[in-house]
Amino acid sequence: MQRHYRALELDKILHLLAEETSCDAAAELALALRPVSSLAEVQRLLAETDEAHTMMARFGVPSFGGLKDVSNSLRRAEAGGTLNMVELLRVAMVLRTLRGIMDWRSKSEGVKSMLDWRFEQIMPNKYLEDRINNAILSEEEMADNASPELAAIRRKIRSASSRAREQLEKMVRSQTTQKYLQDPIITMRDGRFVVPVKAECRGDVPGLVHDTSSSGATVFVEPMAVVEANNEVRVLLSREQVEIERILAELSAEAGNFASGIISGYRAAVELNLIFAKANLGYKMKASMPLVNDEGRIELKKARHPLIDKNKVVPTDIELGIHFDTLVITGPNTGGKTVSLKTVGLLTLMAMCGLLLPVADNSQISVFQNVLADIGDEQSIEQSLSTFSAHMTNIIKIFDQADACSLVLLDELGAGTDPVEGAALAMSILEAIRNKGARIAATTHYAELKAYALQTPGVENACCEFDVTTLRPTYRLLIGVPGRSNAFAISLRLGMAPEIVEHAKALVSSENTRFEDVVQSLETSRQKLEAERKEAERQRMAAEEASRAAKERRESIDAEADKEMERARQRAAELIARTRGQIDAMLNEMEELRKKQNKILTAEQKAKLKSGLRKLEDEADPVNRKEGEDYVLPRPLKKGDTVLIYDIDKKGTVLQPPEKDGKTALVQAGIIQTRVPVSNLRLISEKQAKKQQGTVTRSINRSNVRAAMELDLRGQMSDEAIINVDQFIDSALLAGISQLTIIHGKGTGALRAAVQTHLRRHPSVKNFRLGTFGEGEAGVTIVELK
After folding, report:
1. Do residue 301 and residue 393 come from a single domain?
2. Which strands make up the sheet holding 187-189, listed edge to edge?
3. Which domain holds residue 98?
4. Is residue 36 part of a domain?
5. Same structural domain, 324 and 469
6. Same domain flag for 105 and 243
7. What is the pLDDT of residues 55-94, one digit of tens each?
8. Per DSSP, what are the bridge partners of residue 666?
9. 652-704 per-position pLDDT tens digit
10. How far is the C-alpha of 631 from the C-alpha of 681, rounded, in Å?
């Protein structure tokens, strides 16, 4: 990594990125990351990181933990080589990880992503993964079911070993032989079963000696009775090893057949691991995606240096290349000048590496061909370079590299030599680099550079704010304000004798004193404006809060008014339904009276019925009556006029014009004749009446009206009841009846549920409800037709 990047601490950021990766290959890619200078490439890298950041927030992070570089093993297998069990298990682990990554992606199949082309390179191979895992149990053990031959061999080995052990156990338990044994145990030497025999009893136990103890007191003898069984075990073990080698060769050949696909998927997964590591680092830094340009414009809002504790770092706004091309930062030591300088450079390099930046939204950063920095004390004893010489050596190299596509960062420009010469040299260096078109940010203590920035177009002052009362920097960068050294104020605050400080002030030149006074005046004005701005902001937020509360209150009142209107409508609808029911009862009573001996109603009976109807009409208080109170008939009503009964929105025909009092008229509405107040009638013109097409006039037997308004379904099955309901509704529509009663009883509720489900889908049903007290309650359903 070049020196300029190390000076800005990019290497530390890359180490943080490497810690977020899950495999060695991705960590190596992270450490090898370098800034790119192509605008299109930087935009692509940032977009990929932002895409991963968004997917992480929605679906979590995919697991890359099992990725191992198995490329060499797979290429060897592809060439015909045989892999050992460790290598094959690593291949299976990589395949399992690739499958897990694709399973994670399948959770978001409907979401398009610019990372899809990388996911498409990953091809899981469940077949090979299962073949390896089923055959190999661990790095040193092959499974019995790896092949039928291996299973048969191992059964024979267990059988032969069992026979050998049985023979030896008989010897160990035998009273005759036991006295010759050092210990009554069975052990193994060179893969053969033996017993420990006392050295002096060697001739008493016939067999082959395979080993001797370190003391020489014990010899390990393979009795002749088990030699044959041991020989059989050794032969079978050799056959087992040959079969294991054959299985490994077979598995290696299969892995070699898929080598290219596995390697391609592995590389794509490593790249995805790096991209998601960038996104995860951005999440930890609370970072966002900046706007990117290649025109040298930098505008960082609430920027935070990523290597400073996020709970301690002070966000700051930094601007460069928009209204000015050179920024001169002044202020006391430890005030944050160098941090501001490093923040600009480091965030620029991070963006050029495709990393999200710890800044607020709508920040913008520029891509540069060169980011050149001279930061820190680089004096060298070996090269006999002082601080000044080291800085000048770096600046000379920077000057040779700088051009219009460069960002140049200079810390303590001109320091380490005579102040007069240093200030003059610093101004000359700034002018020379500016002439090359580079963007420059420099820190200094020289008052001459503050004046230079004030007098030169394209150069701007900035300072790191310092609180003299607490003797602590606030670390906020104030652009447009030259900094003060505050040496006199700090000395007084620390307890320096006032006469010494006053004498020092007298020694300062009058020009410098006037300049410092101007700076102090500017700082005082800035602080006053800042306080006023904060107060205005507070008042604005209070006004917004009051406006929001008022809006919520208004919405609450509107919602309550809507609820009241809805309750009024429901009460009116219930009242109208109850009134209609009472009218039906009166009509039935009228019909009964007519039927009795075919007698004509007496005048007294007619008056009683009319009085009851008027009373019911008065009780049925409509919701929309008030809206028509100002209506005036365009002319007097006459017999045959078509009118609208306003409160119930029902058309009728005038049978008898208003009497002498002029208050009521006799109107025929459907099958009902009733007297209606003239104020409740609206005259319908002939043109409006003609528009009503498809009108069918038919006579209806009033004796059947009540029967036509009720349907009794009790005792019927659901299918039969539905058919009867349809016929009932059709008959009601033909009769001009708008409200019906369906009697289904309470029972288990199955018939009621079936009827109401059918009514909910019926095209002629406007709404329906259960009956109220006096109507049958839950045993009936009241239906209103369209």
Report:
1. yes
2. 187-189, 192-198, 218-223, 207-212
3. 3-125+258-284
4. yes
5. yes
6. no
7. 988 888 888 888 889 999 999 999 999 999 999 999 999 9
8. 656, 675
9. 888 888 876 677 888 887 767 778 888 888 888 766 655 554 444 444 444 44
10. 9
As beta bridge partners, residue 721 has: none
User: Is-contact 752 776, C-beta < 8 A?
Assistant: no
Tell me the one-letter amino acid at 253: A
E-strand stretches of 554-663? 642-645, 650-656
What token pair was written down for 98? 């690739």
Residue 772 structure tokens: 């109220």
SS3 state at 232: helix
Q: Does the global pTM surpass 0.70?
A: no
| CATH number of the domain residue 720 falls in | 3.30.1370.110
What domain count does the chain have?
5
Residue 280 falls inside a structural domain: yes
Distance CA 448, CA 32 (A): 43
Boundary (domain end) residue, out of 235, 252, 269? 252
Q: Please check whether residues 268 and 300 belong to one and the same domain.
A: no
**Whether 264 and 181 share a structural domain:** no
The whole-angstrom separation of Cα 608 and Cα 86 is 107
- For 737-764, what is each residue's pLDDT tens digit? 888 888 888 888 888 888 888 888 888 8
Q: Is beta strand 439-444 parallel, antiparallel or unpaired with respect to 406-410?
A: parallel
| C-alpha 283: how far from chain center | 12
Does 502 fall in a domain? no
Could you tell me which residues come within 8 angstroms of residue 477 by beta carbon, excluding any fewer than 6 positions away? 316, 317, 318, 329, 336, 340, 462, 463, 464, 465
The amino acid sitting at 236 is: L
Do 268 and 310 belong together in one domain? no
Q: Which two tokens stand for residue 329?
A: 């930062």
User: CATH number for the domain including 78?
Assistant: 1.10.1420.10
Domain annotation covers residue 562: no
Residue with tokens 């006199």, as numbered in its chain = 488
Tell me: do 47 and 179 sit in the same domain. no
- 222 and 365 housed in the same domain: no
Gap between the Cα atoms of 530 and 63, Å rounded = 49
- The answer for residues whose C-beta is within 8 angstroms of residue 547's C-beta and 6 or more apart is none
Specify the DSSP class assigned to residue 285. Answer: T
**Highest-confidence segment of 516-525, 622-631, 735-744:** 735-744
Both tokens assigned to 110: 């409907």
CATH number for the domain that contains residue 320: 3.40.50.300
Closest CA to 441 of 398, 494, 379, 497: 398
Sequence letter at residue 386: S
Dihedral of the CA atoms 347, 352, 356, 360 (nearest 10)? 50
- d(Cα 170, Cα 468) in Å, to the nearest integer? 98
Helix (H) or strand (E) holding 726: helix 718-735
Per-residue tokens: 187: 């052990």
Rounded Cα distance between 16 and 8, Å, is: 15
Helices (H) and strands (E) in the chain, counts: 24, 25
Tokens for 357?
């930046």
Mean pLDDT (whole number) for 9-34: 93
